[in-house]
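Entry type: protein chain
Record version: 2
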Amino acid sequence: MYHYQSDATQFLDSLIKERPELEQERLSNRNLLWDVALNPEEQAGFEAAKVAKEPYTYYKL
């Protein structure tokens, strides 16, 4: 069986072994960007503002 690991993967594995607290920091920082509560009123406005997509250029007559 082939067990290749890139230099980047080896670096990250060694970094996590040296500083295990990084995993918790990574998760808390992820929450800042991706796990946010959506405002239903804003979402409704975004849906209402959508513009119909034009057909593919070559299919126009």
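Comment: The two ends are 56 Å apart (CA to CA).
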